[in-house]
Amino acid sequence: MNFASVRIITDDLDRLVEFYEKVTGVSAKRPAPVFAEFVLPSCTLAIGHSQTVQLFGAGTARAADNHTVIIEFRVHDVDAEYTRLKPLVDEWVQEPTTMPWGNRSALLRDPDGNLVNLFAPVTKEALERFSGRN
Questions:
Q1: Rounded-to-integer distance, Cα 80 and Cα 56, Å
Q2: Partner of 103 at 20 to 30 A CA spacing, among 34, 47, 50, 125?
Q3: Of 3.30.450.30, 3.40.50.720, 3.10.180.10, 2.10.10.90, which CATH number belongs to 66-134?
Q4: Boundaries of each VOC domain copy (predicted)?
């Protein structure tokens, strides 16, 4: 089994696509008006309009109702990304901080309220743990 992607369901696809294009620096692929994908070297982030949920069956997902998942992006320099994105982000949950497990991390909310973590391993142990990963 291979992990393929994470999909966010939203009522405002264009707004969320524009936000993640700015965060990732990657243009979204739009194979349909109600669906977009960010194909990154290590993963794919998909965004679907809430209309797409009907294709999977009623009640399978609700837009902007996530309280358990954090979308994480490994970055080269957390502090530089924080500075770059600070004017674009409405809510910062945590300014750059070094976590007990050795990652430097900044936590924000996207326009739908989903938590997004920008992190970089910075301690020797964390760097070793991520060695060989994209």
A1: 40
A2: 47
A3: 3.10.180.10
A4: 2-121
Q: Which residue has the tokens 């992190």?
A: 119
pLDDT digits (tens, 9 = 90+) for 53-93: 887 776 677 788 888 899 999 999 999 999 999 999 999 99
Tokens (6 digits) for 35? 């669906």
pLDDT in tens, 98-134: 999 999 999 999 999 999 999 999 999 999 999 988 7
Using an 8 Å Cβ cutoff, are 44 and 2 in contact? no
